[in-house]
Each structure stands twice: as structure tokens, then as C-alpha cells.
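Here comes a specimen:
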Amino acid sequence: MRNKQKGVIAALLFAAVVITGYYYHIEKAELDKQHQIRLKRFSYVTRDPDRRITFSYQTSINQSMNFDVSQVDLASGKMPSDTRLDRQMVIVMGFGSRRMYKGLGCVASIQSHMPFKKIIVYDLGIHPKMVKKLRQMCNVEVRKVDFSKYPKHVRKTENHAWQILELKSILKEYGAFFYIEPDMRLRAPISMLLPYIIKQNGILMDVESDNTTVQVTHPELFRALDMSIVNFKRDFPNAPIGTKFIAAVNNSALVKTLWKPLADCALSWKCIAPFGSEHKDVVPEVKLIHTDMNFRF
């Protein structure tokens, strides 16, 4: 009887081994098949492994960054090729210790799509150890705002006066820039935006449609710029506000009509941060809630 039970158990074990081996071979064959499909797809993507790939952005760290900025002016029709303009355009951001890790994530997203693109980070209170870490990254330049040459209110970074003044300087230095907030992430090279920036006469912004310019701008700012709120609201009833990024290419006409007035406003606290203004989110359609100028230019 015991021998019979042993025989049954042995038969069951043998059957289990055979079935397991059978399914193992089927699964292995299926995995091999999928692997071959992936290899085939990879060959489609890579095409000829000996082909030469061209990039619209800088492909060598040692490549010269000495550009003739005078050759970039939309007003006079002076424009280099898209490839050269893309190489000349720098990415700019600024943050302090509170937004440090968001900033690192933004830098990583930029470098994943544009590994040789120059990035300028403004140090608005970053810890020295993290500044050292940033400076060790390829093509990342860390700058400090020289507040000594500006009025005292510019030191209050929440009013973003520093941003206007430094971006105007960057535009003069490089002829083109892409300013991005540290909590944003890029999913593609910025070169695809160049035709749209040029079409918009040298400035392109991300806009928020929930609030209008009149809703979030302090009335004193309009007075400081010698503008009528009534006329502005009549001519631009749904004027949006810029939020997360600003892309700009030099346009001497815009320098006179936009960047210079903005810089003058940033240098005056009565304009950039008038009494009663706040740096906060604005609830749509709520009266008497205004913020300082912030990104709203």
C-alpha cells in the first residue's frame, strides 16, 4: 500500500515538473520573441548607426560662445539663423533655498533635452553648499544680484523688481533669453519656440486666463506709468497675465517701449510695489484684491 502511494506521489511530482518545464519553455520563447521585437524597433529608431546627427543647440562645451549681439535686432531685420540664435539664447532662472530642490529638478529637465545649453541661475539666498553643487554642473553659471547698485526695495525679491532689471541686462548681453520658474519642467528643446517668439515681435509668455491684468495690478502702477485704467480696460478688457516663463529676442523698438519703462518702474517702489499691494494669488472676480507687479508684464 505504501509503495502504491509512493508511486502516485512520484507520478504527480513528475507531471508537475513536466508541466512547469513546458510553461517555462513557452514563457522563455515569448520573452525571446518580445526581445527580438524590441531589437527590431530599436533598429528602426536608430536607423543607420553610422549616420551623423545634427543638433540645433550647442553640441560641444568647448564651442565658442562669443556671439555678436549687435546682429540680433528684430526691429532692424538683423537676425542670425535659427540654429545660431538657439545657441545664443540662454536659459535663466532664480531661486532661494526654499525652492532649491524644485530648481534642481528644473535644471535636470533642461539638461535632459538640451545637455549643452547655458543656464544662468540667480542666487536669491541659496545655501553655500548647494551653490557649490550647482557650480559643479555642466554649463550652469550661478550669479548673485548686485543689490548695491539698486534701490533698497529691490532687495525684497518677492516684488520681482530684480527680475526685470536682470533680464533687461541679460537681453543686452546675449540678445535672447528664456526665463523659467524653478517649479516648471521642460519636455522638449526650446528651439521650437523661436518662430513664435519672432512672430510676436520678440517676446512670448505663458499666460493665465483666470485673472485679467486689471484684476491683479495695483491702481498706483497704472498711475506711475501714466496710464488710464478706464482706457486700458476698454482697449484690453481681457488682457491676460504672464506667469511661468518669458522668452525674448532683442528688439530695439521693444527695448524703448517695453523694457526701459519696465526697468524704470522696477527702480521705483511706488510703481513696482505700491503701498497696499501684496504678493499673493488672486481669487478671480474678487474686488479690491491686487498684487504687486510680479510677472505681470
Q: What stands out?
A: DSSP finds eleven helices and six strands in the chain. Residues 41-47, 60-64, 281-297 have pLDDT under 50 and may be disordered. The CA atoms of residues 25 and 256 lie 75 Å apart.
